[in-house]
Amino acid sequence: MRTIAGAVLCVLALASIEAQAPPSERRGVQTRVEGSSRAFKTPWGDPDLQGTWSNQTLTPLERPAEFANKPVLSAAEAADYEKRLLRNNDADLRNPGTRQDVNTAYNNVWWDRGNKIVADRRTSLIVDPADGKIPALTASGQARAERERQIASSNVEEHATSWLDFDVYSRCIIRSGLPRLSTGYNNNYEIVQTPGYVAIFQEQIHETRIIPLSTQPHLPGTVRQWLGDSRGHWEGDTLVVETTNFTDQARGSIFRNATKNMVLVEKWRRVDDRAIDYQFTVSDPETWTRPWTVKMPWNRIDGLVYEYACHEGNLSMEHMLEAARAAEKQPAK
Amino acid sequence: MPHARTRWASVIATTAILIAVASLPQVDAQAPGTRSARIQGKPNLSGIWQAVNEANWDIQAHEARPGPPQFGALFSEPAGVGVVDGNEIPYKAEALGKKKENFANRWTQDPEAKCYMPGVPRATYQPFPFQIIQGTDTILIAYPFASASRIVHFKDVGESPADSWMGWSRARWEGDTLVVSVTNLLEDTWFDRAGNFHSDALRVTERYTPAGDNVIQYEATIEDPNVFTRPWTLRMPLYRRLEKSAQFLEFKCVPFAEELLYGHLRKPAS
Amino acid sequence: MRPRIPALLFAVALCLIALSAAAHHSFSAEFDANKPIKLQGTVTKVLWINPHTWIHILVMKPDGTTEPWEIEAGTPNTLFRLGFTRESLKSGTVINVDGYLARDGSHRANGRDLTLPDGRKLFMAGSGPAVDKDK
User: Fold this and answer.
1) Is C129 within 8 Å of chain A by CB?
2) Burial profile A56-89: b = 16 or more Cβ within 10 angstroms, e = fewer
3) Element housing C108 (H / E)
4) What ipTM describes this predicted complex?
5) Tens of pLDDT, residues A168-203
6) End-to-end CA distance of chain A
7) E strand intervals along chain B
8) By the CB < 8 Å criterion, does A172 face chain B?
9) Chain B adjacent subunits, 3+ CB pairs under 8 A
10) What is the nearest CA distance from C2 to chain B, expressed in angstroms?
């Protein structure tokens, strides 16, 4: 009797597994476990991060002085802060005749600077160090930062000798090295996975980061890439990616004036249908006195990621160089 | 315990297990270094692939040709048997002049020289390894030259709001062949270095058919009533890069093209 | 009306902070903050390209002749996600441009503030084709 009962229980148990198996047309196995990242799996059993995402957020990287001892805001404080940030980001506000107004450039409709602070109401994206500030720079880190600050506040670009006086952004080589923070617009990504790889398409500038899920060593140190060289693996439901082999060959090619020996470790974990928890830790003993860590959400977008062909349409580079040549022909004032 | 009941219990349990396992979705458990031939019942086209032919120099049959003379034989061009069905590109009479003009000026006018994205189908047969990442409802194709990428949609994504360098790609399966319809391609790309060109009316239909684990038979049918008198097709095998160390690498060529594009705007030496 | 200077200065400060924290487009290397310009013209062509949309207009001069101008705007991708397409700004549309002149003296300006003759902003959210939210 016991063996038949056992067999029936076995059948019932297997039948219940079969009932949860989805039709093959659906994206992946999704059970209705709220908030559990274990629910999202690809057909081959990897955690599923696929989809279109944005890392746009109003929360600043570093904790502002007004919140110096306040790592998290109350709901009321957060609502008020969000309103203020939205008003201050409103590009329809003008300050005519100033350099700042020229640099604001367009009406608000063209921008996508974020419309929310992070859901957990932290006052900084930096979570380590606990004061929410970038750690102190080393002496050489300070020297690099100061050199870039001098270039950026000078008018070398207005009298550019050549394209080399501009940074990677204006040259349309990359628009921000890794790791990427929220920028003025097109903060969008599309993640596609296949057995053995995770690929992240970045809208700016239409490049695909291919992350082999592999223990192969990194490229040799003589091979540097603008987006570095990535190797990933799963730790439970979290994708952990280490990126090295950055290049410092151009102005702005490395995150925050770090050196090409910077090591970036990123983690992605699917939270629910609409969000991924993303964090990164950057280490560069030649730049920062200690590593530091940022957490930010990647939120689902309902729209598509579009082609952002930058170099092909970079009329601005011609115009800026033409302007520099025209300025040379002006009689000295 | 009577043998008959034990035996029946085993039969029931075993049958149930077999039914359940057969009904589960195709779970491809991935040991490192292994690859599954199919995903969700379809061929898995993922991998690092490369065309091995002379099409990027000239998609038609051609003899060896000199390159820019100051480089000797270094950038000269090998002969090729061509990849176009019937070896004929059916230009309208009025379009042939433009092709000849392109060819005469190719070393400065080829969009490849400017590090512009190569468009479709040229990206497929530029002689560099590219990578296909086949996901569950989207395919990403990453090409190294100019970091060109394509998002290929199985979902209905409607019409493209504007034209683009790498086009708007919509895919479906026909048996084991991936068929990709590419529309909304800008007119600014060429088919090769020989100046073969098209208008913004171009539509490309690609077919990727696996022939064993390590070869994809690729074909692309070109339709452009502004430039050609009829559709025409090019085809070639794509070969998997088999070395264990094979890896998609960057070919960000903007810094290599800036002198060509902006050199005339550099500050003159005093 | 008393100008809201403190709010404006706060906005200036924050904008400067936001812009200096990341690499940026050097607008002031291309356009002259000391040369504001106001134009009205008829759209003849729109280049829906990145990094900037270019709106070509024909400006009617007081003497009755016309002058072509190129107006630089933002990335079209943001507009596409709002449901706008290349059909959304047709040739023949009259627009007002409040911006800054190109530094090289050409007939080119930054489209700092783009409006329709009735005062509405060009590409008001919600004024484009309906976006299919179920996509």
Assistant:
1) no
2) bbbbbbebeeebeebeebeeeebeebbeebeebb
3) strand C108-115
4) 0.88
5) 999 999 998 999 999 999 999 999 999 999 999 999
6) 106
7) 38-39, 42-43, 47-51, 130-134, 138-142, 149-153, 168-174, 177-183, 203-210, 215-223, 232-240
8) yes
9) A, C
10) 44
For residue range B176-197, list pLDDT tens digits in order.
999 999 999 999 999 999 999 9
Task: Indicate if the pLDDT at residue C55 is higher than 70.
Answer: yes
- Please judge whether C73 and A92 are an interchain contact, meaning their C-beta atoms are less than 8 angstroms apart: no
Q: Who contacts C69 (Cβ-Cβ below 8 Å, separation ≥6)?
A: C39, C41, C56, C57, C58, C59, C97, C107, C108, C109
Closest chain C C-alpha to B213 CA, distance in angstroms: 35
Alpha carbon of B8: minimum distance to chain C alpha carbons (Å): 51
Q: Provide CATH code, domain B45-60+78-265.
A: 2.40.128.20
CA–CA dist A61, A47 (Å, integer): 28
Residue C17 falls inside a structural domain: no
Boundaries of domain holding C66: 28-115
Structural domain tally of chain A? 1
Residues of C with CB under 8 A from a CB of B: 48, 76, 80, 84-86, 132, 135
Q: Hey, is the C-beta of C43 within 8 angstroms of any chain A C-beta?
A: no
Is C132 inside a domain boundary?
no
Contacts of C86 in chain B (CB under 8 A): 161-163
Q: What is the pLDDT of residue B11?
A: 63
Q: Do C85 and B162 touch (CB under 8 A)?
A: yes
- The answer for A 248-287 residues in CB contact with B (under 8 A) is 249-250
Q: Is residue A15 part of a domain?
A: no
**The tokens of A278 are what?**
């993303």
CATH at residue C102:
2.40.50.140
Whether chain B has a CB inside 8 Å of the CB on A205: the answer is: yes
Measured between beta carbons, which residues in chain B are less than 8 angstroms from residue C48? 161-163
- Per the structure, the complete domain to which residue A239 belongs is given by 53-77+122-316
Q: Would you tell me how many other CB atoms lie within 10 Å of the CB of residue B70? A: 7
Query: Which DSSP category does A122 fall into?
Result: B
